[in-house]
Specification:
Two copies of one chain form a homodimer. With 386 residues, chain A is of the alpha/beta class. The first copy, chain A, has helices at 22-37, 54-57, 63-70, 87-101, 120-128, 143-158, 162-176, 190-195, 258-271, 288-297, 306-311, 328-332, 336-352, and strands spanning 4-11, 46-50, 78-82, 107-113, 198-200, 203-204, 214-222, 234-243, 280-282, 365-372, 377-385. In chain A, a hairpin with a 2-residue loop joins β5 (198-200) and β6. The two termini of chain A are 18 Å apart.
Chain lengths: 386, 386
């Protein structure tokens, strides 16, 4: 396998982009990525696009063709991959494998979701289709309720508190205020999080990621070619993907995600990197408990200690392991298919030292963690500055 | 890149499978594929699944997780790819690239679609989402109408006749009668095809593929390992993928598909095979004109001569270039995501000499051709007996 590097990236502003179409969003993110990599469209050999539910959100499947067309890049091959909220992470993985295999040289990994053109009920119905239709969605379960069950069990087993969970929202919204592309620019307090409307007990509104429009793109090339494009290439040193039961009721444990642990194990092994070597991480904080469980499942602390290290400030931008400096899904917003790519873009910026006000101090090794549904899929990538 | 071989395959019966669920279908096809390859589930390293619109057809996205779960294979990574009717062909390509890259060794390439659990109108609406939503579907264009426009132009430029087109339906339905897994077991005549109800002039009902349920799976391994599994490995010698404008109105020509020509060029070059070396082909006959154009775009005859060589019987099972011996999309049925995999399975059976009553005489080299939408995506694969 050839080694692979990221040599450019770009994204749209994340938010309720009512005056920007799906087509415009991908062009905007793609153009920024190409400009950042200093390449033209003719140099692109293939594209991979992560998207969850364009068929349900904008009545458009076959978006790979639409994107190749509206980018003016046809007949370049373009492939859509879907794994619920992990669609973007999987697009990155497939793009990496394509470059690693040698079948393509310059590949764009993209992610996009247009969620706010439908009324909220339609959006919620679309989101429910990534849970088990026959055993979960059919009986009315919504996504926050799955994580609420996990939160209750985590509180029961480890004494995790609602205040510790709220601190995740406070930290990630603070970080988002330092990110011009983030959806939510508002400083929170623990009190305000705890007093926000209950979504599914114990999770409150300000602890759950919102509906968001957005797109993000990265440019990948073989590592050995990377210095032709940039002085600051970032190697994709490891990639791990795993699945789990789609229905929560079939899992052995509710206090963590097996798919995360398995994907992380593979990524660490491939990169020959250990958790303690990671300098900065973007993890899948679809809810506050999701981030706490991710810290544990990724090996950054022992099981049950996610709340404690958050409380101690270790995961703040000036902490020993900054987590979600971009603002995460909660602060930056969560345009589903785009999230996995935006996570990687943040790590690339951090490792290049270009993250501005939210730059972490020492950044040689970064990690991204993208979860589909309630944990039926997980994708973990490791990045290294070269 | 490592060379890749198919060492096993299996499929469900194609048809209106009202008593079989999506979950049951994929298990049935997968079990047959594993039995054929002589392997157990524990040996599988990864799965790729082609599916167009499970979100719209059965209110279930994230099917990769569902399939890994219900196969009992979690945490094995499973990835869904979508490119309208070319979803299966793309799943095969991604699975091939994964094995070629070295990141995985034993990979299942699957395709599935459950289309008949919704009323026909919902099915038609789902199908329309793979055309350009803003410029085609929104104004009421349906899929047969795109191919009707191409047929009219083909008739105008080359004198192609309705009888020549009808002969494609007659041939493919005849072949399907020899295939126990095919949906339509009925012998047709040119008269009966011409007298069937008009769908979109000049295309009649018996010239258009039907709504179908079905699943198909293949097992891929590195070619150098293939003889551990089977005495009759089939190499995937070439793979080509291309895109085109999603909207028909933006194309330079209506008498062929640029994406097909471009994908074929890449596949032939990779395999170092020329069109005249192909012994048997499964092409994307979503309508009768689709097959005639494919014959031309794949280099089997000159542009405009597709009708003529069909009339001469060259594409019959006992002709010099048997095309769609399985019955094709028209006779075997067209469960969208499954079609590209079922095409490859037929070529594998033909090259292994296991196609029973529909076995073609000399079969060393085979080709599959899978089209998404009205030609916005095309995938071509070349196979060689080893």
């Amino acid at each position: 396998m050839r080694k692979v590097a990221v040599v450019g990236g770009g994204q749209t502003k994340f938010g309720e982009l009512w005056d920007t179409s799906f087509r415009q969003m991908i062009i905007e993110a793609g153009t920024r990525a190409l400009e950042d990599a200093g390449i033209s469209g003719e140099e692109i050999d293939a594209m991979y696009v992560g998207n969850m539910s364009s068929g349900q959100f904008i009545q458009q499947e076959h978006i790979a063709s639409l994107i190749a067309d509206h980018s003016g890049l046809a007949p370049v091959p373009c492939t859509r991959v879907e794994a619920a909220c992990a669609s973007g992470g999987l697009a990155l993985r497939e793009a990496m494998v394509a470059v690693a295999s040698g079948i393509h040289d310059v590949v764009v990994a993209a992610g996009i979701e247009k969620m706010t053109d439908v009324i909220t009920e339609v959006g919620q119905e679309a989101l429910a289709t990534v849970s088990d239709q026959e055993w979960e969605a059919f009986v009315g379960a919504t996504f926050p309720s799955f994580f609420a069950l996990m939160a209750r069990r985590h509180m029961h087993e480890f004494g995790t508190t609602e205040e510790q969970m709220a601190l995740v929202a406070v930290k990630n919204h603070h970080n988002a205020c330092l990110n011009a592309y983030a959806q939510h620019h508002v400083e929170l307090t623990v009190e305000r999080v705890l007093q926000s409307p209950l979504v599914s007990s114990p999770l409150k509104m300000l602890e759950c990621a919102s509906l968001t429009d957005g797109a993000a793109c990265l440019v990948l090339v073989p590592l050995e070619e990377a210095r032709k494009y940039t002085d600051t290439p970032v190697e994709i040193a490891g990639s791990g993907q795993a699945s789990d039961t789609i229905a929560l009721a079939d899992r052995e444990s509710l206090v963590g995600l097996r798919a995360t642990r398995e994907a992380a194990r593979k990524a660490y092994r491939m990169a020959r990197i250990e958790p303690k070597q990671v300098d900065v991480a973007e993890v899948h904080d679809s809810t506050t408990i999701s981030e706490l469980m991710a810290l544990e499942d990724l090996g950054f602390c022992r099981k049950g200690e996610g709340g404690k290290i958050t409380e101690e400030g270790l995961t703040a931008i000036d902490g020993t392991l900054p987590v979600n400096p971009s603002g995460g899904l909660e602060g930056r917003g969560h345009p589903i298919g785009a999230t996995g790519i935006a996570q990687a873009l943040e790590i690339v910026l951090q490792l290049r030292g270009e993250a501005g006000k939210r730059q972490v101090r020492k950044a040689e090794v970064g990690l991204t963690h993208n979860v589909g549904g309630s944990g039926g899929t997980a994708v973990v990538h490791l990045f290294r500055r070269r």
